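Table S2 (continued). Query chain:
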Amino acid sequence: MKQFASIFSVLIACGAAHAGQVFDGSGTGTGQSENEIIVLGEGHVVMHSVGMYEPLTTTDPNSPMSGLPGKCFGSIEIKGMSASGTGHCVFAREDSVAVVTDWQVTGMEANGALSGQWSVIAASGDAAGLAGGGSFSNLTNRETGQMENTITGALTMP
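Corresponding output:
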């Protein structure tokens, strides 16, 4: 936690490198999830979800989120083929940028992928002032924990 706080302290002092620009917020996040599943009944579970992302691969290589590794956490309720839940993600590099997003799971696709919306709630360093959001579809291999998150959206700098 101390390291996380010092990352934000250092990054707040940095200026925005992409002022006035609009970026394609689409891309792919891959990584490993560690989900704790609590069975509530037949086809009804609550999941404590934690995912560690490799550096993001974005459609726009100039996006402030391009190449950022991250950690996401939250809780999700799954009942049959419906799903809902909320959480946050922190994408950060020690040298230049930190972006915090929130996410809301609003459904489950036929292949088991969780889908929903995301938005930027805070950013610092080179990404200070970043705003935007979009949608996602996150498919996790339940046996290995390997995940792939397909992200769409738009980002803007003031």
